[in-house]
Amino acid sequence: MKLLNxxxxxxxxxxxxxxRTYGLxxxxxxxxxxxxxxxxxxxxxxxxxxxxxxxxxHTVQEARIKKTKWFFEDRESFMSQLSKEIVSGAKSAVKKxxxxxxxxxxxxxxxxxxxxxxxxxxLLRFYDYTKDKxxxxxxxxxxxxxxxxxxxxxxxxxPDKEVHDLCSRGGNVAVxxxxxxxxxxxxxxxxxxxxxxxxxxxxxxxxxxxKAKGTAGKKDKTGFVLExxxxxxxxxx
Length: 237
Hints:
Layout: E1 4-5, E2 19-24, H1 42-46, H2 58-73, H3 75-95, E3 99-103, H4 116-119, E4 125-130, H5 133-140, E5 148-153, H6 160-168, E6 173-177, E7 184-185, E8 188-192, E9 207-211, H7 214-218, E10 225-226
Parallel strand pairs: 2-3, 3-4, 4-5, 5-6, 6-9, 6-10, 8-9
Antiparallel strand pairs: 1-2, 7-8
Helix pairs in contact: 2-3
């Protein structure tokens, strides 16, 4: 079974900037019987993009569940296959005159830094979003592999002060907005995170603005999706 894909509607945008993203889709939350998103909030769960695009297909959902069970039931062979695909993906990108990068938590929030795959490929770029604050603080303290970039994901349970504190330390925080992206949020600069998925190229200490996707995200009532101030200046699309 192939583990990595070579881009979805968002990650493929990075090729305009010279990067090919290879991503891993697992079955989020406990859909496989194992919870791969232990820090997910109610709002995050309801707005999950697991069923976006081809994810709505039954065969795709079954494949993600099989991958997740493989990860937990036979870790050694799973990691062996993943390592092979990472090496292969990097070589394939070079042939296309592209750099390669890898996002292993497309629909999960697992601590990949605790496994060897990132450290074993120090010349390759890995990145993820995470809601694990402890993991993110370790990242900000330089305790994670230097080739692994993390963006913290705000949820409806995240205090505004926490967002300010993390940004003041040089961290980037992803915030989901409804309808449009403001140029600033509570005095913090917002960059358009929908232009591409290359989060490791973002400046430090900013808000990564993302527009709500899908019916669930746009109808959010939990506070996961924020309504920009009507007086805020809009970012260009």
